[in-house]
């Protein structure tokens, strides 16, 4: 292993060597290597570290029966970082001293820090394959440690799982770095190598090197340019915005010093202040777009936070190593780029001849009257194109070059004609083909041959419910698709044939936990923490809360994660219920998830009552009743329908009947009215 991978440091876990045989073995097998171990702290041999003293120097800081914590000094680059070699016990209770050690020591670390080893637990449910699904409590300690210490997994190649048996596979081994590592110019990746006959764990081969790949960056448009009155003329400005903001600030300070020292008031102070404030706001917009942190308040600029997010995003998105098609691993940027291009060239293929569309099959299906057909097939108008662009938020849908909706709105006089021409060309060339899409597989195949768009069998699944076995086998044989299983994800949310359990909501909990772990909260004020929770976390929750009735257990997990991020301590000074109270009631104004869940479901009920132009609403009105007030709960109804009926009854009770509630809602803005009603209803039930 040392020779094959040219290792400077080697960590061995569970080596099972008797302490009295260690020194003779090192002298004969590894002459010239230095080593340390924690054999004396436990009955069986746990962790052994050896290193080449000509390449690196290791200083022991602390060790326990589950971890060895050292300082690593590279003798060639003179870089210093901390390293922890971990071998966790295989029970939750026995691992708790490990988490306590990491949390206690990690809070005081201000150097780049890398943790590696066998943690004997997983972070996400998908890190186990086979056997009984992982319970949330089994992942809680590792997740909390990662969030508190702001750790992140390093990029990896090789095996997805690191331990296996005959029926189950786990990702028990991992390599993580702290926030200070992402701030440094060190790149790192790990190759999880198949263990062969030596072990049932993958070997973690870690490569650390300096980032020397300073390739020229392509031009990218930033929305802050659109705030300049002459931005169409000076789109490409050679001076970096941060430098211009700094120079403008220095100029106004000099003018103010002259005035305060009695040298006379400079009439240009007003203009200098206006220019400095403009560039200051432009710099904030620039950093916001680059860091993708537009959700912070203007008053909480937090440049350190922005720069930390920018560096972290670059580290996370950068591909430092890639397993090439020939099986070798490359860290050369040019080889990686060539392999990507070659892969997608083979995947997408080349242009092929298409069969002509058989227009005779179109009249065989349902058809629209001539008036509707003409309206559907007419060319889109210029007003419709401009209206569609106006409805897109300024910072939405940017391409790789950053040209988002803000640019096209501001520069409409210059580029509007090109946009209209492009949209017109798209609709003129796209007519007719999509009309041949049918549910039947032979129509799908016909459409593929006509349009050149084929369904990818490797990425497609077919889901069958209440189908007899012979029919099921025949459908799978004809389609060529794999049979999928419930629950599965669609648009990010789980779909199931039965009632969703707490485990099915792990995607929501994991998403929030990942976002919290990605934020360097020690660079934020409490106001910044609060704004992130309000703008981002509750934005993520909103999508789920509007679709499902969320159980109290799931809400408790989300609130625990948010509470830990907000206060960064185990003993918050204010109860979470007070935090979620309105500002007028001396709270902090976060939304109570239970109330907000009921509010959004009430809006869904209101959409059904108003017969919103939606396929799902039409199906609900057809399957149940047209009038919401006539609904009755049936035994086989879903949890969503039962919850909607409960909300209907609560609203009817408050206003005397459903007609009274509907009439009252019609004269109020929807969200304000529904949240006010639900808030009052929940508070009255609590009291």
Describe the overall structure.
- The chain has four domains: 2-210, 4-Layer Sandwich (Deoxyribonuclease I, Chain A); 223-315, no CATH class; 367-451, no CATH class; 506-686, no CATH class.
- It contains 24 helices and 21 strands.
- Strands 4-5-6-7-13-9 form a six-stranded mixed β-sheet. The protein has a three-stranded antiparallel β-sheet with strand order 1-3-2, with no helix packed on it. Strands 8-12-11 form a three-stranded antiparallel β-sheet, with no helix packed on it.
- It is globular, with a radius of gyration of 31 Å.
- Mean pLDDT is 75; it is low at 235-240, 292-300, 430-439 and 681-687.
Give a quick rundown of the structure.
By secondary structure, this protein is an alpha+beta fold. It has 24 helices and 21 strands. The chain has four domains: 2-210, Endonuclease/exonuclease/phosphatase (Deoxyribonuclease I, Chain A); 223-315, no CATH class; 367-451, no CATH class; 506-686, no CATH class.
CATH architectural category of the largest domain: 4-Layer Sandwich
Structural class: alpha+beta
CATH topology of the largest domain: Deoxyribonuclease I, Chain A
Number of domains: 4
Kindly report the average pLDDT value. Answer: 75
The CATH homologous superfamily of the largest domain is termed Endonuclease/exonuclease/phosphatase
Strand content: 5-15%
> CATH class of the largest domain, anyone?
Alpha Beta
Overall, the morphology is globular
| Contiguous runs where pLDDT drops below 50 for at least 5 residues | 235-240, 292-300, 430-439, 681-687
- Count the E strands: 21
Head-to-tail CA distance between termini: 67 Å
